[in-house]
Amino acid sequence: MKKKELAKYEARAQIFKALAHPARLRIMDELAQYDERCVCDLTELVGFDMSTVSRHLSVLKNAGLVGVEKRGQMVFYRSTICCLTGFTDCVEKVLNNNVKQRQAALKA
Protein backbone atom coordinates (compact mmCIF):
# COMPACT_ATOMS: atom_id res chain seq x y z
CA MET A 1 0.00 0.00 0.00
CA LYS A 2 1.29 3.45 -0.89
CA LYS A 3 1.91 6.07 1.80
CA LYS A 4 -0.97 8.29 0.73
CA GLU A 5 -3.38 5.37 0.55
CA LEU A 6 -2.23 4.09 3.95
CA ALA A 7 -2.74 7.55 5.48
CA LYS A 8 -6.31 7.61 4.13
CA TYR A 9 -7.13 4.24 5.72
CA GLU A 10 -5.45 5.18 8.99
CA ALA A 11 -7.58 8.34 9.13
CA ARG A 12 -10.71 6.28 8.51
CA ALA A 13 -9.68 3.82 11.22
CA GLN A 14 -9.38 6.68 13.72
CA ILE A 15 -13.01 7.62 13.09
CA PHE A 16 -14.11 4.00 13.51
CA LYS A 17 -12.09 3.80 16.73
CA ALA A 18 -13.84 6.91 18.02
CA LEU A 19 -17.18 5.21 17.41
CA ALA A 20 -16.07 1.86 18.83
CA HIS A 21 -17.69 2.20 22.25
CA PRO A 22 -21.36 1.65 23.13
CA ALA A 23 -21.59 4.91 25.11
CA ARG A 24 -20.17 6.93 22.23
CA LEU A 25 -22.56 5.29 19.78
CA ARG A 26 -25.47 6.12 22.11
CA ILE A 27 -24.26 9.71 22.40
CA MET A 28 -24.05 10.02 18.62
CA ASP A 29 -27.58 8.61 18.25
CA GLU A 30 -28.83 11.20 20.74
CA LEU A 31 -27.03 14.04 18.99
CA ALA A 32 -28.45 12.92 15.64
CA GLN A 33 -31.95 13.20 17.14
CA TYR A 34 -31.52 16.62 18.75
CA ASP A 35 -29.73 19.76 17.63
CA GLU A 36 -27.56 19.80 20.73
CA ARG A 37 -27.25 18.37 24.22
CA CYS A 38 -25.47 19.52 27.34
CA VAL A 39 -23.04 17.24 29.15
CA CYS A 40 -25.52 16.87 32.01
CA ASP A 41 -28.18 15.44 29.66
CA LEU A 42 -25.71 13.05 28.08
CA THR A 43 -24.43 11.95 31.50
CA GLU A 44 -27.95 11.00 32.52
CA LEU A 45 -28.54 9.28 29.17
CA VAL A 46 -25.54 6.93 29.29
CA GLY A 47 -25.46 6.51 33.06
CA PHE A 48 -21.79 7.33 33.62
CA ASP A 49 -20.28 10.07 35.72
CA MET A 50 -19.65 13.44 34.10
CA SER A 51 -15.88 13.00 33.80
CA THR A 52 -16.30 9.71 31.91
CA VAL A 53 -18.87 11.23 29.55
CA SER A 54 -16.58 14.23 29.02
CA ARG A 55 -13.76 11.87 28.02
CA HIS A 56 -16.05 10.09 25.55
CA LEU A 57 -17.10 13.45 24.11
CA SER A 58 -13.46 14.47 23.82
CA VAL A 59 -12.74 11.36 21.74
CA LEU A 60 -15.68 12.18 19.46
CA LYS A 61 -14.60 15.81 19.20
CA ASN A 62 -11.00 14.89 18.34
CA ALA A 63 -12.32 12.64 15.56
CA GLY A 64 -14.33 15.55 14.16
CA LEU A 65 -17.69 13.95 14.92
CA VAL A 66 -19.02 16.52 17.40
CA GLY A 67 -18.74 20.25 17.88
CA VAL A 68 -18.70 22.10 21.18
CA GLU A 69 -20.16 25.39 22.33
CA LYS A 70 -19.71 26.80 25.81
CA ARG A 71 -22.42 29.10 27.17
CA GLY A 72 -21.56 30.35 30.62
CA GLN A 73 -21.00 27.31 32.81
CA MET A 74 -22.84 24.97 30.40
CA VAL A 75 -21.14 23.06 27.58
CA PHE A 76 -23.28 21.92 24.65
CA TYR A 77 -22.38 19.30 22.05
CA ARG A 78 -23.80 18.78 18.59
CA SER A 79 -23.14 16.31 15.82
CA THR A 80 -21.06 17.67 12.96
CA ILE A 81 -22.13 14.91 10.58
CA CYS A 82 -25.45 13.78 9.15
CA CYS A 83 -24.35 10.52 7.52
CA LEU A 84 -24.05 8.38 10.65
CA THR A 85 -27.74 7.42 10.58
CA GLY A 86 -27.29 5.73 7.20
CA PHE A 87 -24.23 3.90 8.46
CA THR A 88 -26.10 2.78 11.58
CA ASP A 89 -28.96 1.50 9.42
CA CYS A 90 -26.42 -0.50 7.41
CA VAL A 91 -24.94 -1.99 10.60
CA GLU A 92 -28.45 -2.99 11.75
CA LYS A 93 -28.99 -4.82 8.45
CA VAL A 94 -25.74 -6.73 8.95
CA LEU A 95 -26.78 -7.66 12.51
CA ASN A 96 -30.20 -8.85 11.32
CA ASN A 97 -28.60 -10.88 8.55
CA ASN A 98 -26.20 -12.47 11.04
CA VAL A 99 -29.13 -13.51 13.25
CA LYS A 100 -30.94 -15.03 10.27
CA GLN A 101 -27.83 -16.97 9.25
CA ARG A 102 -27.36 -18.33 12.80
CA GLN A 103 -31.01 -19.35 12.98
CA ALA A 104 -30.74 -21.11 9.62
CA ALA A 105 -27.58 -22.91 10.75
CA LEU A 106 -29.30 -24.13 13.93
CA LYS A 107 -32.23 -25.52 11.90
CA ALA A 108 -29.90 -27.40 9.55
UniProtKB/TrEMBL annotation:
Q: What UniProt keywords are attached to this protein's entry? A: DNA-binding, Transcription, Transcription regulation
Tell me if Plastid is a UniProt keyword of this record: no
Q: From which domain of life does this come?
A: Bacteria
SMART domains recorded: HTH_ARSR (SM00418)
Name all HTH arsR-type domain ranges. 6-102
Query: Which Pfam families does the record match to this protein?
Result: HTH_5
SUPFAM superfamilies given in the database record: Winged helix' DNA-binding domain
Query: What Gene3D superfamilies does UniProt report for this protein, alphabetically?
Result: Winged helix-like DNA-binding domain superfamily/Winged helix DNA-binding domain
Q: Which NCBIfam families does this UniProt record tie to the protein? A: HTH_metalloreg
* Name by which UniProt lists this protein: Transcriptional regulator, ArsR family
Q: Which organism is it from?
A: Neorhodopirellula lusitana
- Output the lineage of the source organism: Bacteria, Pseudomonadati, Planctomycetota, Planctomycetia, Pirellulales
